[in-house]
Amino acid sequence: MLELSTFIIGGIGIIAFLFGLEFILVGLIISSVLQAMAFINLGDNPIIVYYFFALLFIVRGLIDLCLERDTILWAPGQNTPLLYLSLFVFYSSFGALIFPNVFAGMLVYSPRLGIDDQVNNMTRLVFESFNLNQVAQLLVNVLMIGIIWLKPMTPTLFIRAILIAWGIVIFFALWQWLANMTGIYFPEAYLYTVEGWSLGNDQLIGSFTRVNGSFVEPSSLATYLCGMYGFFLIWWVKDSNWRILLCLLLTIFVMLITVSSTAYLSLFLILAAVLWGLGVAPLFKSGSIDKSVGMIFLAVILSIFLLVMLWLGSEQVRELINVVLLQKSDGDSFVVRFDADIESMQILWRTYGLGVGLGSNRPSSFLLFLLSNVGVLGFLFFTLFIISLAHSALKNTAQSDEPVLHNWVSAAVWGLCSMLLAKTIAQPDLSFSSLWIWIFLLASMASFQPHPISTLK
Question: Which of 345, 342, 375, 372 has the alpha carbon at shortest distance from 360?
Answer without folding.
Answer: 372
